[in-house]
Structure formats: structure tokens, C-alpha cells
């Protein structure tokens, strides 16, 4: 799951409000549960020695390193090393992350009406050049994310909660009214409405401080000014990057990052098949990967049973789910979309992922472990088998597209193979599906733009609060900030006047995470009757690491080795 960054957070701030259920006829229910028998596996747990290098093998460059222009889990993972935020989503293998203070002294102090949240910065915080970090740097970091004409992938969940929809970013002039900075250590956020899980929103990369004088706009990705334990020593786009220790980082202010290795080196253009071969062979005992599914190919599943390989394999079920997005602007008829969904052999798709070792079939983007979950309804077969006869009946009398395009990231053979399955499935409906490779470095930018194909795979991870349903539902199927169209991360471009309108109103409703979650889950269930997307698998990642790598855990949110705690045996 390359995508996501947002997710639900692990906090619940109570406020009273009665539940109001939403109506609507539904087909027969199926469980959305993702219960599993897998236990998380951590390699070399308890290692504390400093020193050495971690070599991170990757098949493509990061889409961006700019914390103000990032909606990607890979950037969030490596970002832990060079930037800090007000709060932080701290990973624990096999469990949703916990939100903890980072730059701030605590998780924030809400006003009685819930419309302001106040944070105090720790003393002695510095940028990599020794300049003190102040509240104004936090505010400026948030302000940059409003410049959507410049930063097209800027995270928007925090922005949608703040009380200044008219602001267009620091390059367009005007004063941002969503944040006050009464002194150098105090940050005050002004909200449109109460938001029970606000501490999780400020764990997003929006709140990474940016010094105004060092802001180079789009070029800032080449060298974001570090506030974390490491800084960028060299970066050659598409080839390599090296991180070294940041001497201005004070570990006394940061109990969350162990910062064990002296350096991290990244190779950014290694084919995934080569990555998996190198890791399985242990040709570099300090190597890991951040590629999805540990860079492993479906054909590698048997090798994971080798005892020596198994002893080097970190693993865990993630808060990450893969889906097929159906472009509702090009496939407009909900019945046609439903027919496509019913025709897909999801069991065959699971095989392309490597079988049950690599992913568990799921019926929904949300699952029963999340707060506020209500039973989801779908006509998809729980075992993943296609229902072609039902699909063909739905298409009778319909205008069926003769051709459709499936777009996939070009670095992973798995995603192309999924397309081949879809080709065979849709051929039986009389639809010619064309496969279009998209450069992985630009994949989600393409999906957000004018070249969005008719069908595209994407993934979403549960994030700082994977226990809440809202921050899965709202980004993926919710409306825009003003409620007039589809939202920023809404890849299917789904916007129903009634359902989306109710989602927009729900954003301004007060209540506990459990109460509001039930409303979000019910609206999501209604939206899914229009089949804007097809749930595929909830990811289970096995990530083979080099024999000298320690503290290797697969992050529930990151879907890869958690860089904040990893170390090397010297």
C-alpha cells in the first residue's frame, strides 16, 4: 500500500450526542470482519546498540520528501527520521498506532466548546542549522499545505477541520486565521466544529515545522530542513539518498525515535525482483526494503518457509487494504459498476498477491475492529468467486462500454497480473480492458489528475488512529472541503448529492468517536451500494531483512519496516 497517509487515530475524546441511523434498502449482509490468526513477528527485538548503516532497497524514488506535499506512507515512514510533528503516531507491531506527543509537551488542550486546541512546544528544539524552532515555523508548515496550486498532494484532513476555508497559502497573500501563535512556544488551532480525534490530525506531516526563509516551494523536496535525528547528506533523484546524524537533534526531547544507525543509505531504482532476490539470499546483511509486501513476488512464497529465511522475516497484518477504484466520471451507471464488481474473480486476484500469506480477502474498506463499525452489505461473494450470471443480467438494456482502461504502477508485476485477471473477467461481459502502465513515481498524481483511467488499484492504510472509521471513509469517498464535489483523496470521484451531502454535514457534528463512527459507517454502506470501488485484500506483509538487522517490525500503518526503531548488529 503505497498510498495513504491519513488514517484514523487512537484517541477518543468524549462529547455527548445521540446516534441517528440512516435508512435505505440494502442487499443481504456479509461480514466486513478481518479477523485473522496471524501473530506479528519482530526480528531482533530489544536491540539498543548504536552505529552502523541500514541500506534501504527501493524500486522507485519517493514521490516527494516534502512533508507539506505528502500523502504517502513511504514518505511518512522515512519522514520520521528527518522531520517531527506536534504529535506522532507511534507504531507497535500488529496493533493500531498510538498517538503520543512529539514536538509538543502533551496531546493538546481543548477548550470547553471543543473549538480550539492549544499546544506548547518543548524547549530547546532546533533545526539542523541550529536555528530555534518556534510556533511560527509550525504555523508556516501548515500554511504551505493550503497552496494547492503548488502542492497538489498536500494532506488536507487537518485543513478541512480548521476555521479558514478562504486561505490559499502563503504565496497568495492574506493572513491565515486558522492558527494563532501568541508566543514562540504556543500554537493555538481554531476549528470549524469540535473534532474528538484532533490530536491525531496534528500527527500528520502538515505540522512539521518549515523555516520560511528556507522554503523553496517545489524544490524543498530536494532538502527539507531537518528537525529529526537525521538530515539529508546527499540526494540524487531516482538513484540514491544518504541520511546522516543531525547533531542539533536532542534525544532528551524525543523518546519516540531510538536513532540507532549512524547512517541510512537508499538505493532508489532497483527492480523488485532483484530486491527480493537480494533479501532472500542475504547478499547484504544490513539491507531492508520499504516496497509494498516486502518487495516479495508471489513466486517467493515457498522460500519463506525455509527456516533460515523465516528467522529473518518480520511480518504482520496491516491496517492497509487494497481496492479497485471505478472511475464514476467515465463509468457513470451504478448498475454497470456493480456488474463489473460482480464479474471480478477476487479469489484469482488474491492468488496474484501470493495467496493468503500476502493478503486476506475483505468485503469492505473498514472492518469490525474499528470504532463505530456497523455491518456492511455487499453482493460480492465472501470467498471471492465471480457472479457472472448476475453481472450479465444487470447489463441487459444498459449501455455497456466497449473498452475500458486499467492503470497500474509499473514497478510491480503483481499489479499487472491483476490486470490480466480483470481482462479475462470483463471479456465475458463484452468489455475489452486495456492495460496501461503508469510510472510508480507519478502513480497517485496521475490518479488525481485528468489522466485517471477507468479502473485503478490503490491502497489505504488506517493511520494514526486505525481504530476509527471516519478517517478511512472520509478521505476515500467523502466530499471536497466545500462539499460541492468529490474530495481530494477520493480516487473514484464519487459524489452523490444526498449521501455526500450527509457526509459533509456529519463533519460538523459533535459526538464521541464511537457515535460518529456509526454514522460514517452507515453512510459508507449506502455509498457502496453504488459500487464506486471493489474491496480486494487486507494486506499481510512479510518483510525479509538482512541477517544483521535488528528491531525490525512491520508497521501496522506503514506496511513496511518501521525506520524509527530499526538497528544494526555490528
From TrEMBL:
CDD domains: PBP2_clavulanate_OppA2
Keyword Lipid metabolism attached: no
Signal peptide feature range: 1-20
Alphabetized UniProt keyword annotations: Signal
Domain Solute-binding protein family: 98-465
Keyword Hydrolase part of the UniProt annotation: no
Name of the protein in question: ABC transporter substrate-binding protein
Lineage: Bacteria, Bacillati, Actinomycetota, Actinomycetes, Kitasatosporales
